[in-house]
Amino acid sequence: MSDRSAILDVNGLNVSFRSASKLVPAVRNLTFQLNRGEVLAIVGESGSGKSATAQAIMRLLPMPPAVVSGGHVLFEGDDLLKVSEKQMRDLRGNRISMIFQDPLSTLNPVIKVGDQIAEVFVRHSGMDWTTARARAIDMLDMVRIPEARRRAEEYPHRFSGGMRQRVAIATAIATKPSLLIADEPTTALDVTIQAQILELIRALQREEGMSVLFITHDMGVVAEMADRTVVMYNGEAVEENTTAELFATPQHNYTRALLSAVPRLGAMNGRQRPLRFPAIDPQTWSAREPQETPDTVDAEGAPVLEVRNLTARFDIRNGAFGGVTGRVHAVENVSFEIRPGETLSLVGESGCGKSSTGRAIARLFSPNSGAVLVDGTDIATLSGKTLLALKRKVQMIFQDPFASLDPRMSVGAAIAEPMIVHGTASRDEIRARVQELLRQVGLKPEMASRLPHEFSGGQRQRVCIARALALNPKLIVADESVSALDVSIKAQVINLMLDLQASLGLSYLFISHDMAVVERVSHRVAVMYLGEIVEIGTREAVFGNPQHPYTRKLLSAVPVPDPAMRNRPRDISNDEVKSPIRAVDYIHEDRGYRSVGNGHLVQNWGPEEWKAA
Amino acid sequence: MTSGWTGFARRFSHNSAAMFGLVTIVLIAMISILANVIFPGDPLSIAGAPFIWPGTESAFPLGTDVLGRDILTGIVHGSRVSLIVGLTATLFAVLLGMTLGALAGYFGGWVDAAIMRLVELFQTMPSLIFTIVVMVSLTPSLPTIVLAIGLTSWPQVARLVRVEVLKLREAEFILAAEVIGGSNTRIILTHLFPNVASIVVVTASIIAAHAILLEAAISFLGLGDPNMISWGSMIGSGKEALRSAWYMAALPGVAIFVTVLSLSALGNGLNDAVHPHGAHK
Amino acid sequence: MSAAGASSGFRLLGYLTRRLIHVIPTMLLIVGVNFFLLKMAPGDVVDVLTGEAGGATPEVAAMLRQQFGLDQPIWLQFMKYMGNLLTLNLGYSVGYNDFVTPIIFERIPASLLLMGASILIAVIIGVLLGVIAAARRGTWVDNVINIMAVWGFAMPLFWLALMLIVLFSLTLRWFPASGMYNVYQNLHGWAYVRDVAAHMVLPVFSLAVYYLAIFSRITRSAMIEVSGQDFIRFARAKGLSPQRITIRHVLRNALLPIVTITGLQLGAMLGGSVVIETIFAWPGMGRLAFDAIFRRDLNLLLGILFISSFLVIIANIVTDLVYAWLDPRIELK
């Protein structure tokens, strides 16, 4: 076990930001302790102040806008709020280290990777550059980067996101710090890569006896990583406990609300249909039992969408004359169908082609080959007025609620635009419909004249849904539409989508990387990898009885918000997520599928491609 | 309610340098419009004895030049040329540049390649030398100056607009408009142009400043419109008397300096008002 | 390591070749522009090609007619014109009694000296001021540098030059205001160099001011922008000294946009040199242009346009190479 003494003692920390002439508080009177050798998680949604806390401890906040005051932050005998800047510089990267959220921008693009690690040794351990560089190679080995000697001479742009985060970790633990602060280190990574990095941090923490302050918004990650947990809301700590007790018997209402909004992989066992999230009372945060969804699927009806052998490839042009140097095989021979009132999810990691499939269906580009039948008519090759008429049946909502709306158009105008483009109604009818749509998505009709920046992320996403509904479509393609939302907002928007499905008979093509959410909302699921569907079937079949090794790998990588499940046996390889970019002369081979019964299809795989799962 | 506009107006009005720039430009514009009213008479005609120093005779507050023309009248009337050239050349450059830049960014492919070739062409030829050559090939007059300066200025606008459009092209609200079924024209006019407008307005003031400086240089070299007095040509003639009467060259230069300074301040103010600490979300 | 060195040398050569090929269409377009302006000019084309109305002897006129194919259909004329231009046959100048090409080439070194010195000063001092302004952002130092930069932009080049002459040459008598060297004394060796240097001070400074302002502004905003990026925060989290962060991390990245800007400024500087050389009677290409204006020698001017465009192209290629050297993300393909 760990030495019980506190290595970090935060007491009464206050952080505010000066904006115009106001002082906006971000962290209020925060008190907690981190014990030696322990992993403490600070969990909260956006605006909770968790990131500001981490940066305030390291004194990395830019001081003109930020004002840090109150209490003390004791670390190994020093009050970090009071030491001189020079003393702080001696501590940073030496006794306390930090890694950040976006690995793609964490490393200096013009300095070799090995040198960026060696810098720390030269600065803090008094080594000369030659020795430091040799030690840097050792560090790359330690974080399991293959061919460390060669890789140390390369620049960051040659490393994937996961690899760069490993380099960041190597830099951070180089001088064996007592404390590592990890600020959302895996949020920007694919699920399987996230599992690798979390396992790496756990292993290094054990080996080095390091204490870790882990900032995250993901309750699954908390359950996987933390010994103890602090829950933050609106700048304050609302609950602090050992992780096991926090999950088992949450004391504060907010914690309970948060936990109820987190989908748990495996919790849908035994249920036939998608399940709404519990409705949360915004005042008291008390959660009611989730309502069952009615049976919305019209099993006998003709499919709303039929995709047959869809293929989409994008040329990569380079060189002085724009010659083709490679090709992205984004979508390869994809087939599926969606019935009225049904939700089919496409899951997979970066580069698997799920987004491209969605965009091909919404005709944002023309696929190379294959058919996309909407209500029986193939839109893949259509253009002009006929295509326009069919576009009314398929609409789309996107990932980023901030970028999905024209910042200069009022939301009412944005919702009205589809009706204006298609000329379906008169001005008065349009105005009335806009108000009706706003009501339908849970917003007030008076909001129609406001601009997008006046709304929150969740509200904007509701506006996008209203816009998508304007033409009474039969199918909505939701491309990672809830991925950028906070946990509790995510739950609300998903509930909205399920309600609309029940009341309007909508079908959804739900594109996501979040397996737990997918399990909750889908009738059927298709798992994609390198542009192909590797497994497709009902949700119960794919989640309950996964056949393909990739599906199993994906499922085992998902962090489970249950501390008891922490040490379950898992298969975490150190493979990179493969890229669908191929040479120009690559010929794709179809592999064929076999049936496991009842519409559950699995792609055949070769023995050398996947380790025994 | 467009809180975007009131926020912009507030930020702009609090920027004292920008306000100074705006006020000064308006003042100069008014003076040039009313030039014939407040200073009637031909500035090119001889008004009195040459080489009178400023402040020595009340009839000629700013003195006279080598031929005896009143310098103050010259400066007031000269503002017309500068402002007309500044305005029209900028308009030309902005319209041409915005259109070509948007087309290049939106359509990509060979359209982009062709337009970028043109941009490269006009950016490779040094602007002053190109303008000189144009002025010598055609006869020097106000329209040719405007044409030549416009031709050298539009690439800067086109490049900027193209980059912005490339960024916006992949923005999700543009994709949403496409999914809805909007035509290319509709998307460009309703969604792209308004979002590019702010950056174009800021660039316009830089282009105008540059145009005024270029016109002054052309006139200084003797290639300006011979029928109109210009600040540059005044400095050109003043160059001959530098040793004894350097005020002839100095004073018109101050006028140019103040005008260009105001335009720069205006442009900076617009830029800061539109982007307070980066794009507003 | 020598094998790697040789292969990267080959890559460089390949890149250069490809770049030069890429440049050809632009050069052709410039030729086209020249041809168009030639045709637009009033008067007989031979007059234009010799720079003086009726000044060509019958022999010279006949030679020009044949060389430029003036009796033939227009597309053939264009081909011949293009051929001539690309072999640097730019016509004949009666005023100078010589072919245009050698006239221009004789003047280029003086212009390069002037512009080279100017850009060196503009870059070195401008970047320095920009770094200081960014480091002392918001303080009076920043404000002063900012104001100086804004004033530097707004001043007409030729006016600044004249004012500097009035102050430093006519009043204080510190520096000469005309020519590149003292024609009355026949100086050699170090005395000559010092003399040229003294003559260079005012013109170089006048030319440099505008670009100094640009570089200080660009450097300042690049430094500020890079400072806000994530990897700088990470560098601070490593506990590195502020000096190391500013130079090795921030400046090293800020150099990239600075280098890009440098390339774009060289074209403008050529224009500026016309004015500066005219005022200071500096014997360069710019002064030649002014004389050509005076005489309405269109052909000489077209030649100057062509050659200066070519210089800009070369400068752009050099800038690209420097950029590729600085940015490891650019792979010389």
What does this structure look like?
The complex is a heterotrimer of chains A (613), B (281) and C (333). With 613 residues, chain A is an alpha/beta fold. In chain A, 31% of the residues lie in helices and 25% in strands. Chain A has an eight-stranded mixed sheet, with helices on both faces. Chain A has a six-stranded mixed sheet with strand order 7-8-9-3-10-11, with helices on both faces. In chain A, strands 1, 2, 4, 5 and 6 form a five-stranded antiparallel sheet that branches. In chain A, a hairpin with a 4-residue loop joins strand 12 and strand 13. Chain A starts with 5 loop residues before the first strand and ends in a 10-residue tail after the last strand. With 281 residues, chain B is mainly alpha-helical. The longest helix of chain B is centred in the first third of the chain and has 37 residues, at 71-107. The model of chain B is unreliable at 277-281 (pLDDT under 50). Helix content of chain C is 78%, strand content 1%. Chain C has twelve helices and two strands. In chain C, helix 5 runs antiparallel to helix 10 (242-280), helix 7 packs across helix 8 (189-227) and helix 10 runs antiparallel to helix 12 (298-326). Chains in contact: A-B, A-C, B-C. The interface between B and C is large, with 44 and 49 residues.
Main features:
heterotrimer, A: alpha/beta, six-stranded mixed β-sheet, 24 strands, C: 333 residues, mainly alpha, two-stranded antiparallel ribbon
Question: Can I get a quick summary?
Answer:
By secondary structure, chain A is α/β, with parallel strands linked by helices. In chain A, 31% of the residues lie in helices and 25% in strands.
